[in-house]
Amino acid sequence: MTFLHIAAKDLRLLFRDRKALLTLIGTPILLTLVLGTALANMWTSETPPSRVLWINEDSGQLGQMLIDDVFTLPGIASWVVLEEATDKDAALDRVRRGQATVLLTIPEGFSDSVAAGGAVLNVYRDPGSSVRADAITQIAQRFAMELSVRRTVHLALAGQGVIAEAGQVEAALAQIRLDIERDSLEGAVAGTNRTYAPMDYYAASMGVMYLLFTVSHGATTFLREREGGTLARMYQSPVKAVSILGGKFVGIYMIALTQIVCVVVFTSLVYRVNWGNPLAAAGLILSAVAAASGLGVMIAAISKSAASADALGTMIVLPMSVLGGSMMPLFAMPAAVRSLARLTINGWALEGFTRVMFENARLADVGQNCLVLLGAGLAMLLVGGISLQRKGVAA
Amino acid sequence: MKNALIIALNHLNNLRKDRLALAFMFILPLLLAFVTGLAFGGGSSSGTYVIPVAVVELDGGAFGARIAAVFDQEPFARRDVGEEEAATLLQERAVSATVIVPANATDLLQSGQRISLSILQTVAQEGPRMVEQHLNAELSRIRAAAAAASLVSQNGIQDWQTSFAAAYGVWALHEDPVKVSVDTLGTAPVANHADGYNLSSPGYMVMFGLMSITAAGAALILRERESGTLSRLLSAPLSRGQLILGKMLGLILTGTVQASVLAAASGLLFGVSWGTSPLTLLVIIVAFSFAAAGLGMFLAALCKSASQASAVGVLTVLVLSMLGGIWWPMELMPRQVQLISRLVPSGWAMAAFTDIIVRGASLGQLWVHTAVLAAFGAVFATLGVRFFRYH
Question: Does A34 sit within 8 Å of B141, measured CB to CB?
């Protein structure tokens, strides 16, 4: 059981290094809070207030209707600040500098041209805004569509030889009720409709990302021992290479496990994160930690020095985190990127965690994720072992 | 000054030999900018972006046919399926959304009863904004045709079906009579939007600039202290001031070279236009590099060892990147977060770079950004030098 001693020693060393411990456990917890609250907006369609400058040169009713009636609707007024502009060039300049999101101009004779054809509303957008400017553009487009609908009804009636008053048209339109309902598959299938909470997602994603940072840190300490000659001394004592490697693996595993368990306990108690079915979550945690530890041992084995292990670790962990959905939720990514996520530890772990957290998945449902993670961990441990064997542990 | 320059150039020269570091500085940020650029809609304008949508058409009439036809247009790809298959496709994330047209919808429309289309997704999918937009537009067209048809059929001139088809045909004849002309302002010949590569390229430039200047820089200085290089340099006729100046210059040079190469590469590869004035861009790059170098010096003073500096450095960079709005469009953040982003150099640098890219901002418009970045650099460098232990 020599390797257990080696593992225990690593754990003791870590617990003595308070600063490292605090960083490893504190940062993911802090970042979960920051991301969970900061990005809450991105998960709903709410955006902070946008300034809309407007110039109305139309003498008819329709232009005024857009400003007075449409932009003041409760669902719109809450995030739009309207401001009348007098000088078009000055207004354009403000939009160009990002001081307003959009300049809306309603040209002279707009109301008349709705009936005659060729009516145009102008929207000038701030180049620095995409989502907010989109939202305002859409309001103008919806308004234009409503006007188009009326004109089309009149044209269609005229074409079919019917003369109708505007009031009749409005009544006919009001009778047609078409709407769109949004539903979640889970709500329809399981009868439970758990909202997708950003705090929960980021607890899982930060947990996994820092797991990877921890193991690459573990790899560095391994090499520092080699540089310090500790390993050479161990190797001279009657300890087998397998024991050293196994000990390192178990040591890194225990450290990483301690870390993620702290994150899970803290986030569920303080942030009220729901980690879902305990058995499924535990299965994912244990296998994700195994995959991460395998990565740690592999990095340690193939690096020449502590400094290069450090660099290699960051080089592997960062892209994995971006591709695997730790920075941005995977579902926001195009399909090609989502398939790249299948190459990362984060991707497999996070996909599993989201299913457990939001889709009521049980252990069997995420069994594939667990197996892939375990397999990857084992494979990397083997690669590390072979590489270490070739070089000689103490080299 | 000459001594400081030699030290600075030596720093660059050392880097040239380190292939891993070079990959880290240049290849990785471009790769990540490419992937995230796609996620932020970088591919949407090029027409390669396809949204697969499953349609469960239970109606079989004119209404259902119109709704299904919506998803024959770009950027959608339609799959006609039954309800069960739709659920499987959603679970496998093979489609972005499923649209369900209820049974007898055409009859309901004719008799003036409510019709609810449903858009079905899993909870872990991005909102179907595009799907909803196109559906809404189509529903408006149908509503117009149905209103006309009901008035015509009430008069007994034609039956509902024929009248509906004729009225719907008016849309094709006159298109949407009221148009919205949309113009994105900017100084570049082609309008630059703050999305896709225009966000991801400066984002990773700032993040990896911080990585190689602040995190790697601090670790490098401490490694030289550990190996005794600093002590040896100081025993040569070289003042501490010259030594630190040299180190800082080396870091600033590294950052400037890195950012310039990344800007040029993202211009070539992703078509990001970095404004009209190379001088403006260079000034912001140097100011940012100075801020990052100051931070690196400060980090070197705080940390005991090189390994600690690199661990703490990476975490610092990640936190600064997040607060600075490197990964998400700042416009979506709540006001408090937007304020916080102005407390970190990464936020100022990001704001300056995006202003250059999307607004073609000139140096005159960015002097505040430049000054703030320089101030960050000066304050942190001073603190760092004050507390740094040379031995």
Answer: no
